[in-house]
Design a protein that fits this description.
Number of strands: 19
Helix content: 10-25%
CATH topology of the largest domain: Fumarylacetoacetate hydrolase, domain 2
CATH architecture of the largest domain: Alpha-Beta Complex
Oligomer: single chain
Number of domains: 2
Radius of gyration: 18 Å
Order of helices and strands: EEEHHEEEHHEEEEEEEHHEEEHEEE
Structural class: alpha+beta
Largest sheet: 12 strands, mixed
Distance between the termini: 32 Å
Shape: globular
Number of helices: 7
């Protein structure tokens, strides 16, 4: 089932049919339910059929967004390269091979762009890239119950200068995007599930790439378990799982660029750079 966050409330898509849920069924209720799929199935009986989707927002209410880093070999290599001048070249190699994953806070609802909305660049950065990531929906009990698409906007020059600057490189206004929906399923996604990105500038493609989630070193349950160690998420959370697609070192985003990230069966998340 696909769950869309709209101006009218939550909308479920099942068998290519759209249904508006009752007003007391919000994302917070979904994320606190022991079984999100079962809750949605039961809510269908109280829903109202609709013909078209209202304006979409990020599928986010009170949930925090966290992120995992250096989960793909390609990400490890890129971050070693960007930090070599600062003497941190081996730092990310150690992170990639460590037992404990890198986990960091990414954002909240007011910092996050939804489908079609603008993502921002840091004004004090000269090297900015999008990071297309499969994002886990984890309920308050620590169970993965769904997936969405995340864009972990990053300032590579700031993090490359010093790994301790990672919060500044990662967390700022509209540095994250989620959408276009929350895909709720009882089944794990196949390892061949593809993540693809295309960046257009003035109508022309200036970068594209793809990978699959089978290239991620760590399991999703492992990442979720580490995130919930001695931590609590009363309204659940999202966890971006890292990127395996990194533009070349001479590429940086510009104002007006259109970023499209596609993961089947979730859909395509489209954002424009402010």
């Amino acid at each position: 089932m696909k769950v869309y966050s709209t101006a009218e409330g939550l909308v479920i898509e099942t068998n290519q049919k759209l249904s508006l849920l009752p007003t007391d069924h919000g994302l917070d209720r979904l994320f606190t339910a022991p079984d999100g799929a079962a809750l949605l199935r039961s809510a269908l009986g109280q829903s109202t059929p609709i013909d078209a989707l209202p304006t979409l927002g990020a599928p986010l209410q009170s949930q925090e967004i966290w992120a995992a880093g250096v989960t793909y070999l390609r990400s490890r290599t890129a971050r070693m390269e960007e930090s070599k001048d600062a003497g941190g070249g081996t730092f990310y190699d150690k992170v990639y091979n460590a037992v404990r994953p890198e986990l960091f806070f990414k954002g909240t609802a007011h910092r996050t762009a939804g489908p079609g909305e603008q993502v921002h660049l840091r004004r004090d950065s000269k090297w900015n890239v999008p990071e297309p990531e499969l994002t886990l929906a984890i309920n308050a009990q620590g169970k993965i119950f769904g997936y969405t698409i995340g864009n972990d906007m990053s300032s590579r020059d700031i993090e490359g200068e010093n790994p301790l600057y990672l919060p500044q490189a990662k967390v700022y206004h509209r540095s994250a995007a989620l959408g276009p929906c929350l895909y709720v399923t009882d089944e794990p996604l196949p390892t061949k599930t593809e993540i693809a990105i295309e960046i257009q500038r003035s109508g022309a493609t200036v970068f594209s790439g793809q990978t699959d989630i089978g290239q991620i070193k760590r399991s999703f349950t492992e990442l979720a378990e580490f995130l919930f160690r001695d931590n609590s998420f009363p309204a659940g959370c999202y966890l971006m799982t890292g990127t395996g697609i990194v533009p070349p070192d001479n590429f940086t985003l510009q104002s007006g660029d259109k970023i499209s990230i596609t993961i089947a069966p979730i859909g395509t998340l489209v954002n424009v750079v402010l």
